[in-house]
Design goal:
- It is globular and about 60 Å long.
- It contains twelve helices and six strands.
Length: 277
């Protein structure tokens, strides 16, 4: 998934409205009035009102206090970072990045690259340089920073449940420096023991499996239901039609039945890592 520079003002206006709606929803779930929340977070009621109506932005330190007062477990802060930090997102990815912060479950199939939540810095830099050979070191630094911010969802007290299916070919990918994939597979092995992460490998020899159509992610967002995100070389699209989502959910179920169990997947990753020269 893609992260790049800042957005035009009209895009930020849309982002403000989405962020405001999230703040209002979270406040409602906490059963707090604007006045009560303002007192708890040490901000003005007018600021909360302006944010919830999408009419004004706010500083990160205020969002930290709002997140804490609402016991949002980093959801508000993550959404703010995805939309308004110095490292922004591409227009097509911004809504997805915000949804990631509120999602409770991810079902991801990857047939080209390691999922963004799991990528180590060296891997991010390598694929970014390949993707855009004219990118400056500053631009790539921004991409790395944005990827690392997204990965913080796993550090929460209550992180989302992630089931990641990786086509074996993803692990066979090689870069100029062999240690890049060594370090990346080490990270996958470490994450395979995370209580909220399941990593399973779809063997290269699997015949005609339904994932040949490409990578995709199904997200479960409380209050919004499930939606699918599909990304291509230069753009991405969110699919929310129930019949389309159901189709991808069935595809994921078929892929998971073809994938190796978690323990066997871990053993295969260890074998592949050991053969890297």
């Amino acid at each position: 998934m893609s992260e790049v520079g800042r957005e035009p003002e009209d895009t930020e206006a849309v982002a403000r409205k989405r962020f405001g709606a999230l703040v209002k929803k979270t406040r409602g779930q906490a059963g707090l009035s604007q006045q009560k929340l303002a007192a708890m977070a040490l901000v003005s009621q007018s600021l909360i009102s302006g944010v919830e109506h999408g009419k004004k932005g706010t500083r990160r330190d205020a969002v930290v206090r709002l997140d804490t007062a609402l016991n949002a477990n980093g959801v508000l802060l993550g959404a703010w970072d995805a939309s308004f930090s110095s490292v922004g997102m591409t227009a097509y990815f911004r809504e997805v990045a915000e949804a990631e912060q509120a999602a409770t479950m991810f079902r991801d199939y990857s047939m080209g690259l390691i999922p963004g939540w799991f990528q180590v810095e060296e891997y991010v830099r390598a694929i970014s340089e390949i993707h855009d050979r004219d990118a400056t070191s500053e631009a790539i630094d921004q991409i790395v920073e944005a990827r690392q911010k997204r990965q913080r969802i796993l550090d929460r007290t209550h992180p989302p449940l992630i089931t990641a299916l990786l086509d074996e070919v993803v692990l066979a990918r090689r870069f100029r420096k062999a240690e890049i994939m060594v370090k990346q597979i080490d990270k996958l092995l470490e994450l395979s023991y995370h209580p909220r992460v399941d990593i399973q490998i779809v063997p290269m020899g699997t015949e005609g499996h339904p994932g040949l159509g490409g990578s995709f992610t199904v997200m479960e967002v409380p209050g919004s239901g499930a939606f699918v995100y599909v990304e291509s070389q230069r753009t991405g699209v969110s699919l929310k039609q129930p019949d389309v989502v159901a189709l991808y959910e069935r595809t994921f179920a078929e892929l998971r039945s073809a994938a190796l169990p978690v323990q066997a997947s871990r053993s295969l990753m260890e074998e592949i890592r050991g053969n890297i020269r």
